[in-house]
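Backbones bend. Our protein:
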Amino acid sequence: MATSGASDAVSGDAQARPPKTGEMIAERLRRQIARGELAIGERLPPEDELTTTFGIARTTLREALRILESQGLLEIRRGRTGGPVVTMPRIDSLAEGLAVTLQLRGTTAGDLDAARQLLEPRLAGWLATSRTDDDLVVLRAAVDRASAAAAVSDRTAFGVAALGMHEAIIDRAGNTTLATISGLLHALVARYYLRSAARSDDEKMQRAVRSYRKLARLIEQRDAPGAEEHWRRQMTFTIEGWQHNRSVDLFDD
């Protein structure tokens, strides 16, 4: 019993470990970035000034900067005019961490696809409700790129254009939170869109273009239920060859 108690105490101590100074400084800077006190593109003050401001050693400051760099919040630029610059975390970088977590949990392709279909069709419906003339211009341009690729049987270009259709819906729907989450999931399956397009024939590409044009019409008409249901059906056929009951390899080349 004593051994068990000692083990529990050690475990509790490990969980209650106070953050290192570098982690604390990283958190302070992270909050400043999140609040807009440090703007995207802004260069942080020189190391000497930061170490004086925070009352820390140079090595501790560099530890904090490395943490923020790993989180995509800073870019350490080299040279005389370099230094740490505030950056917006990229979706693809965030998606890599999510991909590892999902794969370690044995996430199935069906599970991932189901999550996407809960979100993206709803975004299509919201876009139909709130769309602007600019939104329609972006959406029609995405459709036209897919149509042009299909017309010359360019499967690679068509795959890129298909990705662009989904991205246009996600980016223009007007809900930042859902768009970001949907964008993360979309980034995870991007390679499957390209592979699916590589296996497509002319008939499938033309079918997809007709579907894209119909979605654009529904959004133009502000038919939110129609746009949502249509895009849900379209997404059902987007990724071919998935064995939905098997774990998906998100890092497969």
About this structure: The CA atoms of residues 64 and 71 lie 11 Å apart. The beta strands are 74-77, 83-86.
